[in-house]
């Protein structure tokens, strides 16, 4: 009897039926052996047994709002045990600036960082973090539970980090600062704390320079504070520079000690160059930083270099420099004859700086570990009675 070829449509229908049956059976086996996860919950199987612990919380994310940069924020979340068996909680991972505080303290806590919440009871989990930024932030902390429905709970706190304070401008720069006339300037300090800023201290950071500055603060008008986005308070800092500052670069800071209510120190740079009727020049003189840069010198051979002190203005003929102090002590200074230059509007005095052969070792290379040396002159000028030359030098063996 000849074989008949199966109808292709019949074969296709049979394949579909078999495949559907196998797929449904596999899905049923997977569903029975591996219940689905929905969020933090396992809705099927033994996990739904109400006789076990049940972790519940009404809040897992908190909108904190704003926090000052460097300030510490905190928020408490509540976990309740709605089951009939004790609920065990342990600390999990946190984001970089977030910590789970006081988790091992109080009722139900132990030194290993775990808590046991009795049936019907609840516990608080306090999350703390540091404000870094500025800008938006989102901090997370995880708590593990022995509730099969909810093996872990992730708490989140979101908000914006604001600067604790801001100065406008960023620094006070004196472009025309004279040793004989002084100057005035103002800077506005905006604050972002919970209340009105309280001024606890106000000073210039260098004690020797403080005598040349007068500082005062006053509250900014409410309308001006409101014009700065996010600001809650503001101060006007007035700076008066008295005559007599040493010639050369000005590099100081105003230190403003505030309570916002947390303690904050606002630092505002003071920058500029003090000019006057006296000026220095020479091959080793670095006018950009106003120092005599001699570098490393051999104590056996020594060194000689020349520079010039020039004087202008109505008191130029009164300038007759006399050395008052030198550091290191082996430095020597020879003062030449003062002579007018050109039409006589400027008087120039030659100065020869000497490191004698056989000088002892010294380190004054103008670093934190080796502060600069100095040559101090009495000038004879009525408005600039003294002149200090900073010296960067190291004397080797």
Topology:
Layout: H1 8-33, E1 55-56, E2 61-68, E3 72-81, E4 87-94, E5 98-101, E6 109-110, E7 114-117, E8 122-130, E9 135-145, E10 152-162, E11 165-168, E12 172-178, E13 183-191, E14 198-204, H2 207-210, E15 213-219, H3 222-226, E16 233-241, E17 248-259, E18 263-275, E19 278-282, E20 285-286, E21 291-298, E22 303-311, E23 322-327, E24 332-335, E25 339-341, E26 346-355, E27 362-364, E28 373-378, E29 386-396
Parallel strand pairs: 2-10, 12-18, 21-29
Antiparallel strand pairs: 1-3, 3-8, 4-7, 4-9, 5-8, 6-7, 9-10, 11-13, 13-16, 14-17, 15-16, 17-18, 19-22, 20-21, 22-26, 23-28, 24-26, 25-26, 27-29, 28-29
Low-pLDDT windows of residues: 11-16, 20-48, 104-109
Distance between the termini: 120 Å
The tally of helices reads 3
From the 3D structure, determine the CATH topology of the largest domain: Immunoglobulin-like
Spatial sequence of strands, sheet with the most strands: 2-10-9-4-7-6
The computed structural class is mainly beta
Structural shape: elongated
Give the CATH level 1 class of the largest domain. Mainly Beta
CATH architecture descriptor of the largest domain = Sandwich
Strand content: over 45%
Main sheet? 6 strands, mixed
Average pLDDT level: 82
When the domains are counted, the total is: 3
Q: What is the helix fraction of residues, given as a range?
A: under 10%
Question: Radius of gyration over alpha carbons?
Answer: 38 Å
Number of strands: 29
């Amino acid at each position: 009897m000849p074989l008949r070829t199966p109808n292709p449509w019949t074969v296709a229908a049979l394949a579909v039926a078999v495949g559907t049956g196998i797929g449904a059976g596999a899905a049923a086996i997977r569903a029975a052996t591996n219940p689905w996860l929905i969020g933090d919950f396992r809705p099927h199987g033994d996990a739904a047994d109400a006789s076990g612990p049940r972790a519940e919380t009404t809040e897992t994310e908190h909108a904190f709002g704003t926090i000052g940069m460097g300030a510490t924020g905190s928020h408490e979340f509540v976990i309740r045990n709605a089951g009939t068996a004790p609920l065990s909680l342990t600390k999990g991972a946190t984001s970089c600036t977030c910590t789970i505080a006081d988790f091992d303290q109080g009722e139900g806590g132990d030194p290993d960082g775990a808590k046991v919440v009795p049936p019907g009871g609840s516990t608080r989990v306090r999350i703390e973090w540091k404000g870094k930024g500025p800008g938006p932030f989102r901090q997370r902390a995880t708590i593990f539970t022995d509730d099969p429905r909810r093996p872990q709970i992730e708490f989140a706190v979101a908000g914006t980090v604001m600067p604790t304070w801001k100065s406008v401008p960023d620094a006070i720069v004196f472009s025309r600062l004279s040793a004989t006339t002084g100057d005035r300037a103002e800077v506005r300090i905006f604050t972002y704390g919970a209340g009105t800023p309280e001024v606890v201290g106000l000073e210039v950071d260098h004690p020797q320079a403080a005598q040349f500055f007068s500082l005062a603060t006053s509250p900014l008008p409410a309308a001006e504070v409101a014009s700065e986005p996010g600001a809650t308070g503001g101060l006007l800092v007035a700076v008066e520079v008295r005559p007599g500052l040493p010639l050369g670069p000005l590099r100081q800071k105003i230190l403003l000690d505030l309570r916002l209510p947390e303690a904050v120190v606002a630092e505002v740079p003071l920058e500029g160059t003090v000019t006057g009727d006296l000026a220095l020049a020479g091959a080793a003189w670095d006018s950009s930083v106003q120092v005599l840069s001699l570098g490393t010198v051999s104590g056996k051979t020594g060194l000689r270099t020349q520079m010039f002190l020039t004087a202008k203005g109505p008191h130029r003929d009164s300038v007759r420099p006399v050395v008052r102090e030198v550091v290191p002590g082996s430095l020597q200074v020879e003062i030449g004859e003062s002579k007018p230059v050109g039409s006589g509007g400027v008087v120039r005095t030659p100065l020869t700086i000497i490191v004698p052969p056989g000088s002892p070792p010294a380190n004054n290379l103008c670093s934190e570990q080796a502060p600069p040396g100095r040559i101090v002159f009495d000038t004879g000028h009525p408005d600039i009675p003294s002149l200090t030359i900073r010296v960067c030098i190291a004397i080797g063996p």
